[in-house]
Design brief:
25 strands, 6-stranded mixed sheet, 24% strand, globular, 7-stranded mixed sheet, binds nicotinamide-adenine-dinucleotide, 473 residues, alpha/beta
Length: 473
């Protein structure tokens, strides 16, 4: 077992108090991290505030170089990092590798983003220009499902925009992020990136800290609402990436054999613990029987187990609280007599937070397992008849993160997509995010956006400077 330290003001430090981090595959402690409170947060914020004075004046090239250094540090140590990630998060090695290389790729790509000045007016009377200025010190708060990707997608745009950051990983999955902190300690100027760990109560301290100017948060909608409230005291800027209950809509012209496997992984990747996983799959009645059978058949070929073992496709749930919540939803479905195509028939036992692949056969629309975000290896298949009906059903949610349409008729797919109340809709693919394309939720799935120029702008204020050209001075 290793102790992982925090990064504050360019130094790896601890405070002598520790939090254990468990491996969800076997419930054994895999590492310890500092249990920080107000004192450590104040030190980290002071360091970030001090570093901001000079970092905000750096050129685009200097920032790009530093961020590319972060990308290289992650890529060069990918083997060590993905194994560590599996040991704390539970996802299979291959998916952990994708996250690590994805984070390095995101950093490299986003290092090239720029925010150019905009000329609003340029004539005989006036020159008016909008420039973007960094907001200041950012507080980043991240969840446990993609701990590395989420940390990088907060640190990188903050730095590129000229901000400094204090980042708090989830207490369930801080290890890989702290190992990255160690790797980038001498890559980033002291104080620009600070990473501190602690229990959930450290979150509100960040949200309410008077010397933090912006919060960028990924996590649940319930916590997002608390953050919005906490940040309101001094009108901090906020970006919130929250929960989802994404619908996939499969039209009758879709090729059953070709889409079955893709649909499966759109729900079960990372054991379903993905904000943009397909959490409700609507299948047209003409192909419902064939497609549900094909998905259930494919599911039988996928191994649920320890993510460090070769051949595992679906790992454990990341933590006990979420494990119990998913089991509760499954129990509710059993109690209500809903039909299961797979799973639901045996209770998991032994160590590790394993849930069998669970596919439900056309439960009612108001079933908890349909209406709530499951965030686990659960896939309700739902039968629909008309397009108008399925659009209404898909939109009948407080969430509005993403969705997908599967059809050979892509024009029809786009027509449906335009009627869905979500931030992203994929036609014939799933979970595709680009470093250059904005990603954000409608309704209660978020506030603002990450990624691309839109995401970068959220770390800045617009400042307008006008010069009166025909002034009598
Ligand atoms: P969570 O909201 O419980 O915790 C997220 C982070 O917030 C953790 O670091 C936690 O310590 C911290 N936190 C907890 N209480 C806080 C408070 N009162 N104030 C400030 N911070 C606080 O979420 P989770 O369970 O870690 O993650 C799962 C949720 O995240 C799911 O709902 C999922 O859909 C969502 N999610 C969304 C996206 C997205 O991009 N939209 C991506 C991944 C996960």
């Amino acid at each position: 077992m290793t102790d992982y330290k925090n990064l504050i003001d360019g130094e790896m430090v601890d405070n002598g108090e520790w939090l254990d981090v468990l491996n969800p595959a076997n419930e054994q402690v895999v590492g310890r991290v500092p249990a920080c409170g107000k004192d450590e947060l104040d030190r980290a914020v002071a360091a970030a505030r001090w570093a901001f004075k000079s970092w905000k004046k750096t050129s685009q090239e200097e920032r790009q170089q530093v961020v590319q250094g972060i990308a290289a540090a992650i890529k060069d140590n990918a083997d060590e990092l993905y194994r560590l990630l599996t040991s704390e998060q539970g996802k299979p090695h291959q998916q952990a590798q994708q996250e690590i290389y994805g984070a390095a790729g995101l950093a490299a790509a986003q290092s090239t983003l720029t925010l150019d000045d905009v000329i609003n007016q340029d004539d005989d009377t006036r020159l008016s220009r909008t420039r973007r200025v960094p907001v200041g010190v950012v507080g980043g708060i991240v969840p446990w499902n993609f701990p590395v990707m989420m940390a990088i997608q907060k640190i990188v745009p903050a730095l590129v925009a000229g901000c400094t950051i204090v980042l708090k990983p989830s207490p369930f999955t801080p290890l890989t992020t702290l190992r990255i902190a160690e790797l980038i300690k001498d890559v980033v100027p002291a104080g620009t990136v600070n990473i501190i760990t602690g229990e959930d109560h450290l979150g509100p301290m960040i949200t309410e800290h008077p010397d933090i100017d912006k919060i960028t948060f990924t996590g649940s909608t319930a916590t997002g609402k608390k953050i919005m409230e906490g940040a309101s005291g001094d009108l901090k800027r906020i970006t919130l990436e929250l929960g989802g209950n994404d619908a996939s809509i499969v039209l009758p012209d879709a090729d059953v054999d070709k889409v079955a496997e893709q649909l499966f992984w759109s729900s079960f990747s990372n054991a379903g613990q993905v904000c943009i996983a397909a959490k409700r799959v609507y299948i047209h009645k003409d192909i419902y029987d064939d497609l549900s059978k094909a998905i259930a058949e494919y599911a039988k070929t996928v191994v649920v187990g320890d993510g460090s073992q070769q051949g595992t496709g679906v790992g454990p749930i990341q933590n006990k609280k979420q494990y119990e919540r998913v089991l509760e939803l499954i129990q509710d479905a059993k109690d209500n007599g809903y039909k299961f195509l797979t799973g639901g028939d045996k209770d998991p036992s032994g160590t590790g937070y394993y849930v069998p692949i669970t596919i439900l056969d056309n439960p009612p629309e108001d079933a908890r397992i349909v209406a709530e975000e499951q965030f686990g290896p659960v896939m309700p298949l739902l039968k629909f008849d008309t397009i108008d009906e399925v659009i209404e059903r898909a939109n009948n949610s407080e969430y509005g993160l993403a969705g997908a349409v599967w059809t050979k008729d892509t024009d029809k797919g786009v027509e449906i997509a335009e009627q869905l109340e979500t931030g992203t809709v994929w036609i014939n693919e799933f979970m595709q995010l680009s470093p250059f394309t904005p990603f954000g939720g409608h309704k209660q799935s978020g506030f603002g956006a990450e990624y691309g120029v839109d995401g970068l702008k959220e770390f800045t204020y617009p400042q307008v400077i006008t010069v009166k050209r025909d002034a009598a001075v």
